[in-house]
User: Which sequence fits this backbone?
């Protein structure tokens, strides 16, 4: 028990900020995000026996709990089980790669292209790029198969590239149904 | 620069410090959560298999009623929450149905009011169409922060038709936005033999309204106080409540399950 408690506290220290980020990316202000994170950790404590031993897996497991909490709050999404994800309107300025003017133009284009993605595609990209999960971990968070996630992520990247390269009124490639892979 | 590199630069959560877990708030949360022992019982619900099927019979409508008194310390915002609801007048029903349709952006012609019930200063409206539902909760009492009265609403697809002795819902909604306290809303389809639905939520028995093959209920969250353990026991995997639900059938028998067993998302 003591060992498990220590493990929980280690997971807490390692993932608290990541959980808050996870919620913020899904449209909640920081204060509410910490409330949600606290709720997720409460559920995790309640289910301590299910806590994965490996830190990365525990982190993914907590993302899954948090996602369920968010979905429970946002039952109004008639498409069901997907959460839209925000994108920052401006890039972080680290001065490394792009000139400032280029960066602003890229940010606007990227934000517009991102907004045209469906919620499942935004989630797939977020889990991969921002949450930094492996394909298998992200699939578990979404409750789909790793193959389905790989397909979804590939389509998301393709659609984002397409939207970055075409004006907003151009026809996007038809998104084929993923039913059957999920 | 790759596409992923560009995305990383646009992370909307990049301002969250890495050491946030060491903030006073985070430390206090950890202390609070671990102050009690973790649950010894795994909470992952066992999915119910609906093996039995029954012939269709007429649906019986039952008006909602809460049968047990409220125990413990309830939020002051729900001081007027009435254990014995009354149906809205026709004028009230028309007004609140229109309002609910507006909040949830559903067409009022397609969506018809199924239930409009009044508990003290609180009105719950449930609309349903052939394939969708909307549920709204509002206070008729203005407050400093909500001059038109607090409100919360939701809408979504109508769940699949359940077996004759069961329910189908897209989940219990735990509301925390737009209202000064937390409450739970649940709605869905009731099987053709279901005549009564009673939730056992945080020590209360909340009887749902069952009408036209639909059921709906709501209840305010009881402040944890010294009932923390009880609250934990009834908080499911996704954080929404997962109370027991007793279902009475037209042949007089009843059975009790967890509502999660009827959640189509699980």
Assistant:
């Amino acid at each position: 028990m003591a060992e498990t408690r220590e493990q929980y506290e280690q997971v807490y220290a390692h993932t608290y900020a990541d959980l808050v980020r996870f919620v913020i990316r899904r449209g909640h202000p920081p204060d509410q995000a910490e409330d949600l994170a606290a709720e997720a950790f409460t559920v995790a404590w309640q289910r301590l026996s299910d806590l994965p031993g490996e830190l990365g897996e525990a982190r993914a497991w907590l993302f899954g709990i948090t996602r369920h909490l968010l979905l429970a709050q946002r039952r109004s999404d008639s498409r069901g089980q997907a959460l839209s994800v925000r994108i920052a309107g401006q890039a972080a300025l680290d001065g490394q790669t792009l000139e400032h003017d280029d960066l602003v133009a890229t940010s606007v284009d990227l934000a517009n292209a991102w907004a045209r993605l469906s919620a499942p595609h935004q989630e797939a990209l977020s889990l991969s790029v921002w949450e930094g999960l492996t394909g298998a971990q992200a699939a578990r968070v979404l409750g789909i198969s790793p193959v389905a996630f790989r397909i979804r992520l590939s389509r998301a990247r393709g659609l984002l590239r397409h939207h970055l390269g075409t004006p907003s009124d151009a026809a996007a490639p038809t998104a084929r149904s993923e039913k059957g892979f999920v | 620069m790759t596409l992923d590199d560009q995305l990383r630069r646009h992370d909307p959560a990049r301002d969250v410090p890495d050491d946030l877990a060491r903030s006073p708030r985070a430390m206090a949360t950890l202390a609070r959560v671990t102050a009690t022992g973790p649950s010894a019982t795994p909470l992952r619900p066992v999915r119910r298999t609906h093996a039995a099927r029954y012939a269709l019979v007429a649906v019986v409508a039952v008006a909602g009623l809460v049968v047990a008194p409220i125990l413990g310390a309830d939020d002051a915002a729900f001081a007027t929450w009435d254990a014995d609801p009354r149906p809205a007048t026709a004028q009230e029903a028309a007004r609140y149905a229109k309002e609910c349709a507006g909040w949830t952006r559903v067409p009022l012609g397609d969506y018809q009011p199924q239930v409009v019930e009044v508990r003290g200063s609180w009105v719950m409206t449930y609309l349903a169409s052939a394939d969708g539902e909307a549920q709204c909760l509002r206070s008729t009492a203005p407050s400093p922060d909500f001059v038109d009265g607090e409100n919360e609403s939701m809408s979504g697809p109508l769940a699949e038709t359940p077996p004759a002795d069961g329910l189908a819902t897209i989940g219990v909604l735990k509301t925390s936005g737009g209202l000064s306290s937390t409450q739970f809303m649940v709605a869905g389809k009731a099987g053709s033999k279901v005549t009564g639905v009673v939730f056992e939520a945080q020590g209360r028995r909340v009887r749902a309204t069952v009408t036209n093959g639909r059921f709906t209920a709501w209840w305010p969250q009881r402040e944890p106080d010294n009932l923390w353990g009880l609250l934990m026991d009834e908080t499911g995997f996704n954080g929404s409540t997962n109370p027991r639900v007793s279902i009475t059938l037209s042949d007089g028998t009843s059975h009790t399950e967890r509502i999660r067993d009827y959640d189509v998302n699980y």
Summary: Chain B has one domain: 65-262. The radius of gyration of chain B is 21 Å.
